[in-house]
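If your schedule permits, I should be very grateful for your opinion on a structural question. Please examine both parts with care and let me know of anything in them that strikes you as inconsistent. The record follows directly beneath this note:
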Amino acid sequence: MRYPLRLKQRALRAIIVGMTAWFIGCHRPISAETQDAGVQSVEAAKDAGLPMTAENPKPKIETVPGPTSLSKDGGAPSPPDEVSLVSLDELAPTPPSPIPSTALVRSREQPTGGVRERTGDVSVVSHCEKQSCMDGLQDLRTKRELIALAPTRDERATLDGQGSVQRVVKIAHTSDGFVSVYTGSTNISDGAKANNSLSCATYGRGTGRPLNLKDAVPPKEALALTHRAEMMLEAFQRKHGLPAYRLTPKGFLHDASSGRVALCAEAPTPMAGTVIVIWLQQ
């Protein structure tokens, strides 16, 4: 086959240029930096088990990041969303009354050393007398009294009127930033029918004060959680034929170990002393 003269000239020029570049490259001394880089590339390739070939003298080595450390509460699988009815007498069981009574919590004994319960560096302390038994909540790390042992104004009025007060505090969850508890009471005034109550509260360990849900999670997330809880609450009440419970901004529990929060719906009068607890994944 005969090729046009111009094509032959282009081919010859390419051959000459290529041979000249090869000759110069073979006789140019290799710098120290280039030698070091070459040695590092070879060693890295050996460590990675990659083939070294003439076509691939420096295989691409991908850097794999090391494992990140888990958070203090990390690593545990999160339970699913759930809804349950919690009663005061389940949190603070007391012996049954010999006579019919509407009191969910009856007389309790003074605990040994005044400590009824301790979880980590948070403890429930208690002081019991003839007509009262008061639980309080202490943060031993910050040395704060989150719930005082002293009677509130309403509790003092009940006791001054010869009534009785049983105040219950039960730890639900603790973490570096939060302490979540159930708080309830059974108050009896002048021998009348017992008044029972139960609610949830979460305290910030930085301030020692009870928090709203939007203080513990971003405001938009708080709205989304509340909306989900309302739908689950309505379905639970309808399924079990319960009267309307009510969600409140301060009525929630925070569980850092599973990344969940629980919104607690407080009971109407016929179901006083209970809460509906709605656990939600954040």
User: Anything to note?
Assistant: The radius of gyration is 36 Å.
